[in-house]
Design goal:
Order of helices and strands: HHEEEEHEHEHEEHEHEHEHEEEHH
CATH architecture of the largest domain: 3-Layer(aba) Sandwich
Strand content: 15-25%
Radius of gyration: 21 Å
Shape: globular
């Protein structure tokens, strides 16, 4: 009798797994079919009731809370707890549209192809360049302006790009970002090592494989809070860029218009600053000592 019950339980579990897999495949197939029929992102998102965020692991934009804590700024998606400005903005967008939020992990290096092949509907903090602007669209309203920053061991002179160039500093950078191109342009003498995400970059710094690492000022401030005896600086002259989101190029303006208006609200209502503060506090950074974001 027990063996029969176990067998029935296994068959029930297998059937449930098969049904779940079929449901996922059906939903994916529906999206592909809609895309093939020429429907816009707005039509597909509102029709399928699912908004897919492309998430490149980069603090403070999108990162996982491995402790699954319920501290402010947490967003539960499936079995994972996510944090960051991008994730919380996407959550607000999904709720406004009455859709489910789905997070698709990617990298900044794969972001353009991910959008073009319909892997996700938007990705935040992908730096706008002339080359990328020819391939994808960008929401014109930034969430804030961010600067290219360098993190190094205390006592390291990183005040100017000229000093960094002359020292031929070994710097870790996230691949496919403005930091990569800006350091190449402003300090060509620096030796760059490229990483897929910020966690790999931090590990390389901690093991002395690189002498410094670079990301946004907000991201490096968060990283410094996790690593004592480090300093963060925006080398002079500073490089400021808009933090916005990339989307597909489309004739239908509704998705772009919706995001443009929403981003303006996020920026000027203080929502973005609040989410940054949550990310800082989660990492133990004293928010009273952090410069507020610049909004233009």
């Amino acid at each position: 009798m027990r063996e029969q019950s176990i067998g029935m339980g296994r068959r029930t579990l297998a059937a449930g797994t098969a049904i779940a897999a079929a449901a996922v495949a059906l939903a994916s197939g529906a999206r592909r079919a809609a895309a093939e029929q020429g429907k816009s992102t707005w039509e597909v998102v509102t029709g399928t009731k699912k908004l897919r965020l492309g998430a490149a692991i980069s603090e403070p934009f999108a990162f996982k809370d491995l402790e699954n804590s319920d501290k402010p700024g947490a967003v539960k998606v499936g079995n994972d707890t996510w944090r960051g400005v991008s994730v919380n903005c996407a959550k607000e967008l999904a709720e406004a549209l009455g859709t489910e939020l789905e997070i698709v992990e990617t990298t900044y290096g794969n972001a353009v192809i991910g959008l073009q092949t319909d892997k996700f509907d938007l990705i935040f903090a992908l730096d706008g360049t002339v080359k990328r602007a020819a391939a994808v669209d960008f929401v014109p309203q930034p969430l804030f302006m961010y600067g290219t920053a360098i993190l190094a061991h205390a006592g390291t002179d990183i005040a100017t790009w000229q000093v960094i160039n002359d020292k031929k500093l070994k710097i870790g950078v996230p691949v496919g970002t403005t930091m990569e191109s800006e350091i190449t342009r402003r300090a060509p003498g620096a030796e760059l090592t490229r990483f897929q995400n910020i966690n790999e970059m931090i590990a390389a710094f901690q093991s002395n494989r690189v002498q410094a690492i670079s990301s946004s000022l907000t991201g490096m401030t968060l990283a410094s809070g996790r690593m004592p005896n480090t300093i963060v600086a925006m080398p002079s002259p500073p490089a400021l860029f808009p933090a916005t989101a990339a989307i597909r190029n489309e004739i239908d303006p509704r998705w772009r218009n919706f995001l443009t208006t929403s981003f303006g609200y996020f920026a000027y209502s203080g929502f973005v600053q609040k989410q940054l503060d949550y990310a800082y506090a989660f990492r133990g950074v004293d928010i009273t000592k952090v410069q507020p974001v610049v909004i233009r």
